[in-house]
Task: structure prediction
Amino acid sequence: MELANDLKTVRKARGLTQSQLAEDIAVSRKTINTIENGVFVPSTVLALKIAARLGVAVEEIFWLQEIA
Result:
């Protein structure tokens, strides 16, 4: 299993750039970019901060996906 995400879609629906979201939760824009592209798996704390800032449950952004 791997962690999948819909961060880019949810972020854009809230009208935020990667830089704006990053600044709001005190990480770099590159961190947001690497999460969106599945390169970096965020910690539980970071995933919760992202979800809180976007006003959604963490499960609406991140979920486990079966690897075929």
About this structure: The chain has one domain: 2-65.
